[in-house]
Amino acid sequence: MLDSLSNSLKDAVKKLAGKAVVDRAAVDELVRDLQRALIQADVNVKLVMGLSQSIKKRALEEELPKGMGVRDHVLRIVYQELVSLMGPEAEVSLKPQTILMAGLQGSGKTTTTAKLCRYFQRKGLKVGAICCDNFRPGAFTQLQTLCQRINVPIYGDPKEKDALRIVKNGLTALRDVEVIIVDTAGRHALEDDLIEEIMQINAIVKPSHRWLVIDAALGQAARDQARRFHEAIGIDGVVITKMDGTAKGGGALSAVAETNSSIVFIGSGETIDDLERFEPNGFISRMLGMGDLKALVERAEDVMEGGDLDVNAMLKGKFTLKDMYKQLEALNKMGPLKQVLSMLPLGGMNVPNEVYDVTSVKMERYRIMMDSMTDDEMDDPSLLGTSRIHRIAMGSGSSVDDVRELIKYYKMMQRALKGFKGGGRFSMNRMMKQFGG
Ligand code: GDP
């Protein structure tokens, strides 16, 4: 789903760059590109239409926020609408609980059961699994092999024909376990006896959660499956498997919409560790090529809380050496500079490689040199002529070249930041306002 959809979406949004007003033709074109990309990724047509309508309406009717370019305005709307299509972020509790796994044969249910055992085990919980799939020969041995590898107890009885009895015995056998994952039988297609059996298992287990396992390559059939299981036991979370093997994956979104639930986990490989928590904001941000905006916004907020960036001055377009130092300090607190910058929506901004190269050692050197500057010089670096540079070098125990390097770095940063959003302004605050919604 990620790659091809992501590329089409990025291309579609790129077309808006440089536009001064939101015009209907441009929005129509974007929405058409978006529709094509989503339908190619197997997203249900009805969902796509609903999404298109909301994006069109909002892009044309909502006022262009002050200081925001057309591209970012529309990008933000596309982002928010796609996130809401994914459903709210699913919570995964770390309390004692029982999870019932539903899904058709071959969807990846047994593998996912083992992966979940691993997930909760890593969180420090006592985990166990029950295999009541006595329909597929080998299901028990498969789960047993996987669970034995991670020392997780499993209950099953391949000779017992009655799945309900297996579940009852399993619950007794695993009564000391905090998290129980119940793997149920899948059939080739949705047969009535499968639905009947899972309803009875559900009644006995009274699970905390009922998760539906869906193969990412399934396409539109996902919707019918989801509906049947949802009507039978009430699905409250979806696990999409085999995301590593398909360019599509949109069918699973239909399952989410059908069950009014959310994607909880994504399976991304055959080994027991190939399971990822699903986080809609990050997923969509990456898909739109915007980096992980939510993570960035949160980290930026953390830094801002204790930070003393002169955001007001910077909003006026003033960027002094003092600002640069504070920015570097703030960015440094947020993590490696390169990683932080890769999360920024730097769209058209051309960041010279040297900007990334500033290490904490270098920053410490910059700080020492700046300590030898007067307040006036920090506020107005154009004052820094040859004699002042010599004085600063002497005062800080650095060479003249070091001071010149600092000034060069400052100028490069200033130029780069001027290019940011074309407005000559760069501030976390402004960026947070843009993307925090
Ligand atoms: P079940 O019949 O629903 O229990 O399905 P299984 O757990 O036996 O999985 C069916 C096949 O899909 C197996 O070959 C698994 O190794 C494979 N599989 C499961 N999850 C994933 C995944 O996330 N990625 C990949 N590549 N293969 C998976």
From TrEMBL:
Please provide the record's keywords in A-Z order.
Cytoplasm, GTP-binding, Hydrolase, Nucleotide-binding, Ribonucleoprotein, RNA-binding, Signal recognition particle
Task: Give the GO molecular function terms.
Answer: 7S RNA binding; GTP binding; GTPase activity
Matches recorded under Pfam families: SRP54 (PF00448), SRP54_N (PF02881), SRP_SPB (PF02978)
Task: Indicate whether Hydrolase appears among the record's keywords.
Answer: yes
| Residues covered by the SRP54-type proteins GTP-binding domain | 96-289
Query: Gene3D superfamilies, per this entry?
Result: P-loop containing nucleotide triphosphate hydrolases, Signal recognition particle SRP54, nucleotide-binding domain, Signal recognition particle, SRP54 subunit, M-domain
GO BP annotations listed: protein targeting to membrane
EC number of this enzyme: 3.6.5.4
- EC top class named in words: hydrolase
Q: Where is the Signal recognition particle SRP54 helical bundle domain?
A: 1-86
Q: Which reaction does it catalyse?
A: GTP + H2O = GDP + phosphate + H(+)
Q: Where in the cell is it found?
A: Cytoplasm
Cite the AAA+ ATPase domain residue spans from the record. Answer: 95-294
**Entry keyword Cytoplasm:** yes
Residues annotated for GTP binding in this entry? 103-110, 183-187, 241-244
Record text on subunit structure and interactions: Part of the signal recognition particle protein translocation system, which is composed of SRP and FtsY. Archaeal SRP consists of a 7S RNA molecule of 300 nucleotides and two protein subunits: SRP54 and SRP19.
Family affiliation:
Belongs to the GTP-binding SRP family. SRP54 subfamily.
- Domain-level remarks: Composed of three domains: the N-terminal N domain, which is responsible for interactions with the ribosome, the central G domain, which binds GTP, and the C-terminal M domain, which binds the RNA and the signal sequence of the RNC.
Q: What is this protein called?
A: Signal recognition particle 54 kDa protein
Q: Which organism is it from?
A: Methanocalculus taiwanensis
